[in-house]
């Protein structure tokens, strides 16, 4: 297998046109320069000399018969030709990595351990019915469960600390992570029934800026694409149950999944933010994500299939 991988690396040529041959190294240098913003940064990212990166890009420009970067400023900027080529280069590099991953896995033994990252804001009570199904089909599998914010789980998958994640959808995820939507969860804005915001109906949301906001943030301080700061006064947590407790104690208002808040609304401890605009919440999609290195494995295919029932499964 090592010889086969070496053969793939030796080839590293992709025919894109009738007479043109563009190497993987050229495309990697091009994409890395765009991603990092300079030839020197791309060289550090790819662990190569800057002169090598620059030459790969120059050779690619010669093969394309077009300038891909405007070098007149301090940092290279994509030309129209470069912008046109970029998405094709990104897709080709992604497919090349998938080929390498597939080739490397051909002689590997079946996966014996499965780590699943879970966002606690997603209702997970029904997950154990799905786990029972998985265990019945793969009785020797070892399972590990990690809880974190959705942003942190994406990082776990990216670094392969976990292989499967159940998260709220994010606008951007790494290209080597596969995903599919399995449903949605309703969110609304909540505040303690004793909080000042609960005492009157507001005709606009500008009043929220006058009160502390309780917000989800990842452990590396990244915010979710739908959890963003409105108020200048913000407290942060990395899971919704801490936000809930802070809200119940009157420390501020927050966006919560309805299934977490409903019990406390029914008991009178929590109220949906009083507003003339009745529908100020939204539906957040729930995704299953997996590192593409493992997506073809039978155990992960089975898990994806079962997780499609997570939000509809009857216990």
TrEMBL record:
Keywords (A to Z) from UniProt: DNA-binding, Transcription, Transcription regulation
Similarity remark: Belongs to the LysR transcriptional regulatory family.
PROSITE patterns registered for this protein in UniProt: HTH_LYSR
Molecular function GO labels: DNA-binding transcription factor activity; transcription cis-regulatory region binding
Lineage: Bacteria, Pseudomonadati, Pseudomonadota, Gammaproteobacteria, Alteromonadales
Species: Shewanella frigidimarina (strain NCIMB 400)
UniProt KW rRNA-binding keyword: no
InterPro entries with a match to the protein in the record: LysR_HTH_N, LysR_subst-bd, WH-like_DNA-bd_sf, WH_DNA-bd_sf
UniProt keyword annotation of Transcription regulation present: yes
Entry protein name: Transcriptional regulator, LysR family protein
Record-linked Gene3D superfamilies: 3.40.190.290, Winged helix-like DNA-binding domain superfamily/Winged helix DNA-binding domain
Domain HTH lysR-type: 22-79
């Amino acid at each position: 297998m090592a010889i086969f991988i070496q053969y793939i690396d030796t080839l590293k040529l992709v025919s894109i046109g009738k007479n043109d041959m563009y190497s993987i190294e050229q495309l990697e240098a091009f994409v890395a320069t765009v991603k990092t913003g300079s030839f020197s940064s791309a060289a550090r990212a790819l662990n190569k000399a800057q002169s090598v990166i620059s030459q790969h890009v120059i050779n690619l420009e010669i093969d394309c018969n077009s300038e891909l970067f405007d070098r007149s400023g301090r940092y290279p900027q994509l030309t129209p030709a470069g912008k046109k080529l970029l998405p094709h280069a990104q897709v080709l590099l992604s497919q090349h990595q998938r080929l390498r991953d597939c080739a490397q896995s051909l002689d590997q033994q079946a996966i014996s351990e499965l780590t699943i990252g879970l966002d606690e804001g997603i209702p997970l009570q029904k997950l154990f019915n799905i786990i029972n199904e998985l265990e019945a089909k793969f009785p020797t599998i070892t399972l590990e469960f990690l809880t974190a914010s959705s942003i942190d789980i994406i990082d776990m998958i990216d670094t392969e600390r976990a292989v499967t994640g159940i998260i709220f959808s994010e606008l951007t995820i790494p290209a080597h992570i596969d995903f599919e939507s399995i449903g949605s969860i309703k969110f609304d804005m909540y505040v303690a029934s004793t909080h000042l915001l609960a005492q009157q109906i507001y005709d606009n949301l500008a009043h929220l800026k006058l009160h502390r906001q309780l917000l989800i943030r990842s452990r590396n301080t990244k915010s979710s694409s739908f959890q963003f700061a409105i108020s200048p006064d913000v407290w942060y947590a990395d899971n919704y149950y801490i936000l809930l407790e802070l809200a119940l104690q009157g420390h501020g208002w927050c966006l919560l999944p309805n299934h977490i808040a409903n019990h406390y609304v029914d008991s009178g401890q929590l109220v949906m933010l009083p507003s003339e605009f009745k529908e100020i919440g939204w539906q957040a999609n729930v995704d299953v994500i997996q590192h593409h290195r493992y997506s073809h494995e039978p155990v992960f295919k089975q898990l994806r299939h079962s997780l499609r029932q997570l939000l509809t499964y009857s216990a």
